């Protein structure tokens, strides 16, 4: 990229950037020295289960909103129009379902890792398979997250790419290792604010420099960037209302329902109500985040309408262009380029730190603790810290892989979520909604799901024929042709792929849903072949009576026949007995006092049932 860009970064900018890193480190240090000083895994990994909903909700957004979204979404809008914005529709169910299905089940089981659920519901083997799959997902995803801002900063300031990758990884590893989950959540809060501020600054300056809101609107309208609702049912069409609004729900479920990084935040909430509330609060903020990055793409289009700078840049990478646009807008305004770089790094750091901490948690809770039950608390905490640090180093290696991929970063991230997150969602759904599913079915389902996911995912790399044709980059070109011709052009479907090729061109927005259903289907088939689970063998509290709720119009005895309904409410008192029932406890010591209050407990029970909590929990 143009080396003259380097002059855009002044002393003020370096100071702002340095303040971000220093503030993050300071928060880490604060939580290393205050409270319980991170001497227990309960504090280091679970924030003492004492968090309020506001920090938790901001932290929930931060987990999967990285520099990838900040750079990738404007690039997507610039090239293909605003269709992607319809993913916002999926946030409704994509957050309501986690709040009312996944949170109640997981919170009441008082697990510390989401994968502990899999053992309670199925077996140790399923838990380990789930954990390993999650580790793969996060390690690959982290690579993209670390690489993206470093690549951007390199483009803008000429900073050494790998030096930046190393610095990000190290700073993040340090504060995550020192301050535990409390530091991770509070740095997320601070970093989310910086992220919004940076995007807002670019948009405001950009709109002003392009000639005001109406001028921006006129250009994007004439440039045909405002997309209508595309109701094309073709599943190979990359972005339509169906792929984004419906396929997106499954993507959201895999991220906000069962991903350890998020589950850990729900579990760190002081009460279940706070956890549900924080999930609700994600909705407006996530819509804001989406709106800001989409608008940024529109302003960028208005700016370059008529002159595509990709020739000047010597690269057709939209990701690089977004950075070029930002620096072009912000030049001559000392401090703002620094704020934007801080915004990118905030987004990245908040994601990477969540990943480190959640990876350390699952490795500790799922892979180490069950096999070394006698390990002392101080040794376990030390080991958790060492784990957080080693994942930091591993992610540097993964950054290098991303560097070699060369796809648009947004697509890479969404594909990873779908290919690896989708099967995990399927595994949890199989357990929660289908009482008949057994452990063999779960393992077979997950294995098949992952195999099919990678088959399609890798196949798609060699079949780049999905509807990803960019719109013309230039709005004058459109003005000169008649609308009729243009409409005809955009409706042309490339010769439809057939057979296996058609299978490979499945839109990546369907990956989560498709892979989730594969796991459920294969899981059920194998379960029925090998002998379905009996009601009395299922651990109470691990089933969400979905079928019972869906079939609420049927008479009671028919429902009983169809599905062994263990309503969530009635499981409450039995789950309180779990430490006694299951020899393996939740690894953090069972603490009755921070469970549900008696009053809350009663509200979940059917009328006329009085919970005998005291009596049953005498362990
Ligand atoms: C995960 C979603 C879809 C949630 O809106 C969005 O934040 C996104 O597109 N993220 C891309 C991945 C990333 O930013 O790292
Ligand atoms: Na983030």
UniProtKB/TrEMBL annotation:
Give the main location: membrane
Keyword entries, A-Z: Biotin, Cell membrane, Glycoprotein, Ion transport, Membrane, Sodium, Sodium transport, Symport, Transmembrane, Transmembrane helix, Transport
UniProt keyword Ion transport, yes or no: yes
Q: Which GO terms describe its cellular component?
A: apical plasma membrane
Q: Among its keywords, does the record have tRNA processing?
A: no
One Gene Ontology term of the biological-process aspect is: sodium ion transport
The molecular function terms in GO held by this entry are: monoatomic ion transmembrane transporter activity; symporter activity; vitamin transmembrane transporter activity
- Where on the tree of life does the source sit, at the highest rank? Eukaryota
**Where is it localised?**
Apical cell membrane
Which residue spans traverse the membrane? 12-33, 53-73, 85-107, 128-153, 159-177, 189-207, 239-258, 279-302, 339-362, 382-401, 413-434, 441-462, 508-529
Q: How does it sit in the membrane?
A: Multi-pass membrane protein
Catalytic reactions on record: (R)-pantothenate(out) + 2 Na(+)(out) = (R)-pantothenate(in) + 2 Na(+)(in); biotin(out) + 2 Na(+)(out) = biotin(in) + 2 Na(+)(in); iodide(out) + 2 Na(+)(out) = iodide(in) + 2 Na(+)(in); (R)-lipoate(out) + 2 Na(+)(out) = (R)-lipoate(in) + 2 Na(+)(in)
Where are the annotated segments for Disordered?
599-619
**Family label:** Belongs to the sodium:solute symporter (SSF) (TC 2.A.21) family.
Tell me the function of this protein.
Sodium-dependent multivitamin transporter that mediates the electrogenic transport of pantothenate, biotin, lipoate and iodide. Functions as a Na(+)-coupled substrate symporter where the stoichiometry of Na(+):substrate is 2:1, creating an electrochemical Na(+) gradient used as driving force for substrate uptake. Required for biotin and pantothenate uptake in the intestine across the brush border membrane. Plays a role in the maintenance of intestinal mucosa integrity, by providing the gut mucosa with biotin.
Q: How does it assemble?
A: Interacts with PDZD11.
Q: What name is this protein filed under?
A: Sodium-dependent multivitamin transporter
UniProt source species = Lates calcarifer
**What's the gene?**
SLC5A6
């Amino acid at each position: 990229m143009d080396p003259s860009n380097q002059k855009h970064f002044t002393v003020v900018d370096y100071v702002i950037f340095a303040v971000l890193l220093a503030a993050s480190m300071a928060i880490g240090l604060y939580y290393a020295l205050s409270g319980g000083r991170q001497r227990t895994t309960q504090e280091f990994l679970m924030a003492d289960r004492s968090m309020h909903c506001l920090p938790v909700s901001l932290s929930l957004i931060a987990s999967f909103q990285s520099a990838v979204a900040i750079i990738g979404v404007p690039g997507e809008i610039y090239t293909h129009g605003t269709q992607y914005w319809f993913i916002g529709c999926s946030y409704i169910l994509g957050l309501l379902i986690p709040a009312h299905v996944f949170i109640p089940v997981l919170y009441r089981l008082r697990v510390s890792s989401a994968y502990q659920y899999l053992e309670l519901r199925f077996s140790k083997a399923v838990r380990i398979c789930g954990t390993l799959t999650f580790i793969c997902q996060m390690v690959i995803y982290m690579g993209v997250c670390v690489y993206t801002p470093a690549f951007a900063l390199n483009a803008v300031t000429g900073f050494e790419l790998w030096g930046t990758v190393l610095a990000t990884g190290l700073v993040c590893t340090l504060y995550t290792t020192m301050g535990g989950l409390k530091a991770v959540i509070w740095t997320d809060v601070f970093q989310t604010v910086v992220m919004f501020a940076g995007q807002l600054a670019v948009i405001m300056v950009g709109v002003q420099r392009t000639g005001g809101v109406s001028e921006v609107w006129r250009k994007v309208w004439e440039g045909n960037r405002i997309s209508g609702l595309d109701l094309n049912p073709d599943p190979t069409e990359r972005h339509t209302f169906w792929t984004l609004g419906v396929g997106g729900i499954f993507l959201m479920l895999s991220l906000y329902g069962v991903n350890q990084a998020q589950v850990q935040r729900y579990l760190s909430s002081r009460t279940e109500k706070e956890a549900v509330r924080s999930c609700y609060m994600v909705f407006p903020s996530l819509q804001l985040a989406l709106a800001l990055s989409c608008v940024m793409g529109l302003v960028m289009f208005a700016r370059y309408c008529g002159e595509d700078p990709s020739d000047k840049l010597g690269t057709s990478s939209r990701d690089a262009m977004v950075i070029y646009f930002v620096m072009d807008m912000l030049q001559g305004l000392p401090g703002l380029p620094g704020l934007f770089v801080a915004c990118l790094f905030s987004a990245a750091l908040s994601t990477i730190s969540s990943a480190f901490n959640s990876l350390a948690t699952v490795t500790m809770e799922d892979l180490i603790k069950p096999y070394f039950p006698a390990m002392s608390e101080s040794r376990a905490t030390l080991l958790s810290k060492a784990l957080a640090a080693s994942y930091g180093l591993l992610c540097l290696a993964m950054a290098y892989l991303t560097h070699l991929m060369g796809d648009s970063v947004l697509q890479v991230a969404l594909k990873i979520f779908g290919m690896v997150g989708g099967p995990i969602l399927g595994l949890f759904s199989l357990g929660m909604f289908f009482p008949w599913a057994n452990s063999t079915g779960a393992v077979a389902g997950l294995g098949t799901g992952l195999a099919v996911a990678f088959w399609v995912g890798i196949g798609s790399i060699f079949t780049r024929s999905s509807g990803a044709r960019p719109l013309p980059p230039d709005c004058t070109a459109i003005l000169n042709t008649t609308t009729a011709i243009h409409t005809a052009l955009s409706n042309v479907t490339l010769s439809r792929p057939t057979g296996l090729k058609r299978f490979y061109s499945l839109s990546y927005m369907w990956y989560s849903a498709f892979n989730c259903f594969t796991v459920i289907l294969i899981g059920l088939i194998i379960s029925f072949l090998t002998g379905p689970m009996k009601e009395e063998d299922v651990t109470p509290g691990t089933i969400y009576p979905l079928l019972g709720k869906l079939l609420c119009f049927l008479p009671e005895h028919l429902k009983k026949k169809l599905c062994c309904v263990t309503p969530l409410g009635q499981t409450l008192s039995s789950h309180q007995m779990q430490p006694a029932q299951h020899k393996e406890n939740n690894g953090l010591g069972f603490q009755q006092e921070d469970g549900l209050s008696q009053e809350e407990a009663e509200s979940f029970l059917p009328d006329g049932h009085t919970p005998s909590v005291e009596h049953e929990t005498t362990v």
